[in-house]
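Hey, weird one. I pasted the CotS family spore coat protein sequence into the form twice and got a warning about non-standard characters only the second time. First submission, copied straight from the form history:
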Amino acid sequence: MFRVKADVTIDQKKIKAIITRDYDLEVIALERVRAVYKVYTDKGTYGFKNAEELPDLPFIADCLQQIKKNGFNRIPHLLFSKQGELLVHEDGESYFMEHWLKLRELPSHSLPHFTEIGSALAHFHEASCGISKPDSNNPRSQWGTHHSFLIKSKKLLDRWQQDDRYKDDTETWLLRFLRYRCEMALHFIQTAPQDAQYGVWCHNALQHRNLMLDDSNEVWLIDFETLAYRERVWDLAHFLEYHARPLDWHPHACQLFLNTYQVSVKTPIQQQEWNLFFSYLAFPKRLYRRMKRYFGVNNPGSSQLNRFVKTVKREMTKEPCFQTLYTHLVQSE
């Protein structure tokens, strides 16, 4: 998954000047919210974001417009400038604005909303069907890339296990666990042929802050900067990586979300797709990033080791959930 920064670093005076010049809006007040600005104007409230890493924002906007036409409306509207452009420019950087939705962020304990989220994600995926997939060289095309990612990870682990620098008991334990999980992921994906995978446009960043609730407790999706075309089970696994982990991967919670998704899509997930889902869960990008930060640098230090150990111990809480979910989702079919 690629990461996109939307941080706005220019001062408020310049932001007001840009908005007045390019959008013909009167700025009443600005409020810093994380890395962006909430802009109160005479014609409504908007978000002001950096788009320096989003040269294809018009493409994203077109995808979202088509998703809305296909029936999923719970996504934000992007704002066009006076010149009819989505991107505006100042001092070599690009910015964009979108409507600021009057919603509340999903609470950190998200279990009470798992059914609503499962249903919303299913309908979002259904609405994305029919939108052309990008060329294979487009960074938003991530369908079918998991196998090569696992092969690359396994080669790194092979090299590190043969490296005399990593003979400490803790490092040996970490490498052994990583290899076990990487081989598990490869086993699952070998029983999940690529042509059996259902590709959709995935949100690709289903953290709490990107899931919002309206007054009717319906789920809205925001922040589509990381939108990508890939297998639909990626979004399911990615969601659980953020929302099931605080619940110690309780199988009932995972089943609640996945069952709701299953009954909400026109084409239910088949066994071969579930195998890819388990491959994603077995070796998530979080593990890869953490192993690179420790084994991939010189003299990483004790603090990096402690964070690595903490990550792996958290990952181990997922183990009891694997068999329960596999029995429920695959063996029961």
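That's the output from the first submission. The warning seems to come from a hidden character in my clipboard, not from the data itself. DSSP finds eleven helices and eleven strands in the chain.
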